[in-house]
Design goal:
The protein is 77% helix and 1% strand. By secondary structure, the chain is mainly α.
Length: 326
């Protein structure tokens, strides 16, 4: 039987993202008089929307026990292709959007096909493909930003619907879809059941190959949506736009409660994790902290996320063994 101490520790570990967010939010409110301004908070929401959409897709990937280190460069490449299609081809905007989504899905399909077909580790495959996407981005863009995008493109990153920023609406919609997918469907249960152990999943009647491919396709589509939002917000496609987003996604998802080994999907926790990262970046900007120190802060946050994930795993394994012996 769990003691009050065990219950408290379990609650803290299961809700670490929310608790850290409350702590940081309170601290930021006390540190800067501009933090609680409506304009600033709205800007924070708009800024985290892109990262949040990408992180929702990453939650699907990580909850299956996999990882993708290519999503940042993938976002940059898709953003460049998206902007070029919009400015150079004369295609209808809907067609441009569908092509961008298809490109994201194809990237995810390529990654997962190599992993499941050849048997390589996700770390190696996605790290390699990330460099491919980076090179393709520079080649396609000719090392220059793509500007002059249409108003439709800008609307996805800068527009408002009933005074609500469009990126925030997209974030909410993708968040709801991801939550339902992972928590209310058989496909979602199969993703979580994989836990990185393909043989166990196969014995349970799950096709690990198809499930892994579907997971990466979902992740790729989320990357494409994030890339379109990012391009719209900047009103141009920057060749370096997505660099480092994979690290932010890993930190947000792990802090949110999704284990790096899979077996657990915390979509709402991911949202809190992204908010935490966004608030930290915002308060550092308000305080005028040098961007180099911001990299240090972000790196420390990623390290904290990994340590917390390990501590949580060790504690819950201990509780499981304790329950079995009792």
């Amino acid at each position: 039987m769990k003691t009050n101490r065990d219950k408290t520790i379990t609650f803290l570990l299961n809700n670490k993202a929310l608790l850290l967010l409350i702590l940081v939010f309170t601290s930021c409110s006390a540190i800067s008089p501009y933090f609680l301004g409506m304009t600033n908070l709205r800007n924070v929401l708009r800024q985290i929307s892109t990262s949040c959409v990408l992180a929702f897709g990453y939650t699907c990937i990580m909850s299956s026990g996999n990882i993708d280190l290519s999503v940042g460069y993938m976002a940059g490449m898709i953003g460049v292709v998206y902007a070029l299609l919009d400015t150079e081809t004369g295609l209808p905007f809907l067609a441009v959007v569908l092509i961008a989504l298809a490109l994201g899905a194809c990237c995810g399909l390529i990654s997962s096909s190599i992993m499941t077909g050849v048997g390589l580790l996700p770390f190696i495959v996605t790290l390699s493909l990330g460099q491919v996407y980076k090179g393709a981005c520079y080649v396609i863009s000719k090392n220059a930003p793509i500007s002059g995008v249409s108003e439709h493109v800008k609307f996805l990153g800068q527009g408002f619907v009933w005074a609500i920023p469009v990126p925030v609406i997209i974030m909410i919609v993708i968040g709801i879809i991801t939550y339902v997918l992972l928590n209310k469907t058989i496909f979602g249960r199969n993703i979580v059941a994989m836990r990185g152990n393909k043989e166990t999943a196969r014995l349970a009647g799950i096709d690990p190959r198809k499930t892994t491919m579907a997971v990466y396709v979902c992740g790729g589509i989320c990357v494409a949506i994030a890339a379109m939002m990012l391009t719209g917000r900047a009103a141009s496609a920057q060749v370096t736009a997505g660099q480092g987003m994979e690290m932010d996604a890993i930190a947000a998802v792990v802090i949110g409660g999704t284990s790096m080994k899979g077996g657990k999907a915390k979509v709402i926790g991911t949202f809190f994790g992204v908010c935490l990262m966004g608030l930290l970046a915002n308060i550092l900007n308000l305080l005028g902290v040098d961007s180099n120190y911001q990299y240090i802060a972000k790196g420390m946050m990623i390290l904290v996320a990994v340590v917390l994930d390990k501590v949580s795993e060790m504690y819950f394994n201990y509780q499981l063994k304790k329950a079995v012996t009792e």
